Amino acid sequence: MNFIPSPLHPAVVHFPIVMIVLGAVVSVIAVFWRKGYVPAFAAALLALGALGAWVATETGESDGGLVENSPAQVETLLDAHEDWAKRTLTAAAIAAAIAVGAAALFRFPRAARGVAVAAALAAGIAAWTVYETGHRGGALVYRHGAGVDPSVAATGAETSSASQKSERHREDRD
Q: What is the pTM of this model?
């Protein structure tokens, strides 16, 4: 049994989306609530988001062959998606670095609050780039069928293991 999905990109893109958006929310909370683990939690979420964005970018490039020889409109959208993915990676890495700095300054409350504001702003920008990247990626898949196996999409031949088990269970009862 193969536990690594193919293509890998669609399976990994949702991790950085969640980490970066959640990191942005926690970064805003960390501006006002400096006690305890909140600033460190924001930094960890953003660092994981940046790492996930790197993995998503790499898998996107390696899975790019799935959309070769596409119409010009799809190629243009794919190029825009790739550009926004690189912006997301950069923004997430910057936000994570600033958030780590804010968490490290916990002994200096005034400086920490100022850096926390910068981290929240950077995380907000990173979350916006996630939206822009995801919007273009979603358009590629849901409007143009990019990366979708046409034989499976046309016939509906592939069914999930859960539906197969359900079907077997139904047959066993009959």
A: 0.82
Model confidence at 4: pLDDT above 90: no
Eight-state DSSP code of residue 3:
-
Tell the residue number behind the tokens 């016939």, with chain if given.
155
Residue indicated by tokens 């031949």: 157
Q: Residue 37 region, left (φ>0) first, then alpha (ψ -120 to 50), else beta?
A: alpha
Length of the chain: 174
For residue range 117-130, list pLDDT tens digits in order: 999 999 999 999 99
Distances (CA, A) of 86 to 53, 116, 124, 132, 146: 9, 24, 16, 11, 19
Look at residue 167 in the predicted model and tell me its pLDDT: 53
CB 124 within 8 A of CB 130: no
Those residues whose C-beta lies under 8 Å from the C-beta of residue 66, and which sit 6 or more positions away, are 7, 146, 147
Q: What is the CA radius of gyration of the chain?
A: 20
pLDDT tens-digit readout, 21-45:
999 999 999 999 877 799 999 999 9
Separation of alpha carbons 53 and 43, rounded Å: 15
List the domain boundaries for the chain: 9-147
CB 163 within 8 A of CB 67: no
The torsion angle over the Cα atoms of residues 67, 134, 85 and 26, rounded to 10 degrees, is -150
